[in-house]
Amino acid sequence: MLPAGRLRGGAVLRLLLAAQAAAAFEPISVGIAIGAASALTGYLSYRDLYCRFTECCREEQPLNASALRLELEEKLFGQHLATEVIVKALTGFRNNKNPKKPLTLSLHGWAGTGKNFVSQIVAENLHAKGLKSKFVHLFVSTLHFPHEQQIKLYQVACGTAD
């Protein structure tokens, strides 16, 4: 057992060699090596790092179908059929592990029947940012597609052309 404050001979030799080796590296090479190691570490954990600062579409946010149904029943009056169809469509989509297409809902009805309101409720239940999510796109036909003679152009723009 050595007294406190004293190092073994091998430890002193290692410290001297480490100091000499550190002095032998030039700052540019060390900076490049540290940068490369940082870039590699960032690349390997990119998804986790990226998703901490931006919105990512993860499977970790499951659909709470009972909460969605309850919210639709409480806030949407006289639309019990719409509630059933929407909850069934969303649970079916979320239960599909490998969907071929993105979820698309087309809501129809007279003005004031709650189409945009339902869209907002659905978006809030699927994504934390709701309608402001980058994964949600709300199209209003009279606003986004006002000219009937340009239907082919709209289909190309939306990626639904034949």
Helices and strands in order:
Elements: H1 9-24, H2 27-44, H3 46-53, H4 65-75, H5 80-95, H6 115-126, H7 141-144, H8 151-158
Helix pairs in contact: 4-5, 4-6
Give structural attributes.
mainly alpha; 162 residues
Structure notes:
It is a single chain. By secondary structure, this protein is mostly helical. It is 57% helix and 0% strand. The protein contains 8 helices and no strands.
Question: What's a concise summary of this model?
Answer:
With 162 residues, the chain is mainly alpha-helical.
Question: Which structural class best describes the helix and strand composition?
Answer: mainly alpha
Shape: elongated
Reading the helices and strands in chain order gives HHHHHHHH
In helices, the fraction of residues equals 55-70%
Instruction: Report the major sheet.
Output: none
If you average the pLDDT, what whole number results? 77
Strand content: under 5%
What's the helix count?
A: 8
Alpha carbon gap, first and last residue: 84 Å
Gyration radius (Cα, Å) is 29 Å
Poorly predicted tracts of residues: none
Number of strands: 0
